[in-house]
Amino acid sequence: MKSLAHRYSIRDLASRMEAGLVTAEALLSDALTRIAADDRNDSPLCAIRQLDPGAMAQARALDAERAARGTVRGPLHGIPMVVKDNIDMVGLPTTSGSRALAGAMPWRDAEQTRRLREAGAVIVGKTNLSEFSFEIRSLSSLGGDVRNPFNRAVTAGGSSGGTAAAIAAGFVVAGLGTDTGGSIRTPASFNGLVGLRPTHGLIDRRGTAPLAPSTDTVGPIATVVTDVATLLAVMTDAPHSRWLPPTPRRLAGARLGILRQAFGADAEIGAAMEAAIQVMAAAGAAIVDPVRLPDEILPADRPHVVDWEFRPAFNAYLAANFRPGTAPRSIEEIIVGGDFLPEHRAALQRRAAMPELDAPAYRDILAYHRRLRDALLALMEADGIDALVYPTAAVVPDSFGNPRGGWAPELAACSGFPALTLPVGQAASGIPIGLELLSRTGDEALLLQLADDLESRI
Fold first, then answer.
1. Which is the catalytic residue, given 183, 214, 415, 439?
2. What is the CATH number for 148?
3. Mind listing the pLDDT tens digit for each residue in 248-285?
4. Residue 290 lies in a domain
5. Considering 84, 98, 189, 415, which one is annotated as catalytic?
6. Residue ranges making up the domain that contains 62
7. 126 catalytic residue (yes or no)
8. Is 102 exposed, middle or buried (0-12, 13-18, 19+ CB in 10 A)?
9. What is the tens place of the pLDDT at every residue in 291-309?
10. Would strands 432-438 and 419-426 be described as parallel, antiparallel, or unpaired?
């Protein structure tokens, strides 16, 4: 039997609670039952890092508030959700997936955790991830490999794989991840979900473990586009109608540029993309095929800003966010302690030894980001393109190893532009295939509306 999270959207569940057909306590009980059966047995998904022992009391309190006053805190009142375990939540350690941070107790909720709670969400727990968010699989020294619910011999993707797997498995209806170079969109794609990387700087990241502040963001993952819009409204203190109005823009009349440079060679991905392009054309979109970036500007095999920014940003986070004595004081202390995946030692040592951020090589990386942003703008302006279209990943993962997903997710990460992935097909192995839409700074509403129309037609 499908879970409640699989059968209903956030708005559907809110309507059912308002009508007295279900309660927050019942929704949480359903989530906990499924987690116990599917994530705590002999073949666990390894999606949930830690459950919140106070969640049931919170759900009951929300039900009591509704019964006593007939009012709700916000659009997420009583909705069970999860957050990635690099986002602070009072009462649970923020581990970033590492044994070194197993007891790291934050002083306060991260800003986005606070906003979820204020809107009435019941946070079931925190999800497994790639340790320190370093990879596009989700393997951590605390939680192991996150398995894909569609094929348990395959990675769920990363670094927000636990959030994606928990949603895809029907534990919850939605959750939060983080994205530095594709860490929301890649696992959302591999798990048949909708994931949004918002414009860089739109989302308040206070209380979230950094990887590279120049490209870091928090963002929503959910089963349907409208739920992503609901979460984005909560995360930005904006009405849902700002992102997805009652009469949204449709595909008809939109100009979509097909960036075939990012397609890769996988036949199943190619077939899913061609089918989606035909659907968009049939809906009335003007398809500009192909569009092309200069080869020399593509974000392939380039020095990454993470190498430069991780140590100073993470050390500042360790110093400011945790109760004394509960967390290491620096990356250097973590390296000495050795409580992390051995395969990360070289990356940690390299990043700990990087020069200060005024080095010419670091400035060159930031200059490249500006050139890529300008090239993307020039490409879209030249042909009047509303959004670029390409596969979210260039491969279908087939193991727990790091998938060679290609450079496409870096387009949004390096430019700061918003990008959204949604499912458009499924490989023979069972793994879903995602299509990514990218547009200009502040164009989240356009992406959500185009995706909402495409979702209804796929």
1. 183
2. 3.90.1300.10
3. 999 999 999 999 999 999 999 999 999 999 999 999 99
4. no
5. 84
6. 4-243
7. no
8. middle
9. 999 999 999 989 999 999 9
10. antiparallel
